[in-house]
Design brief:
Strand 2 and strand 3 form a beta hairpin. It is flat and about 45 Å long. By secondary structure, it is an alpha+beta fold.
């Protein structure tokens, strides 16, 4: 890890809670931003693909009515 590569997830146990529930994650070593960058890019790409395929354009609802 270089000083210019910030830690995205510090070592330790982390608890995340949302409206969907709670998850506990154990991180065995510090995880840097560059460690997770490929996974984040894939997630964003897949999210964009999902959003475009499944969220109708605002005008689509008007046209269907």
């Amino acid at each position: 890890m270089t000083p210019s590569d910030p830690v995205a997830f510090p070592e330790g146990t982390h608890v995340y809670t949302s409206g969907l529930g709670t998850v506990t994650v154990h991180v065995p070593r510090p995880v840097t931003a560059s460690d997770i960058a490929p996974a984040v890019r894939r997630f964003i790409e897949r999210s964009d693909d999902f959003g475009e395929a499944h969220i109708p354009a605002p005008d689509a609802a008007k046209a269907a009515a």
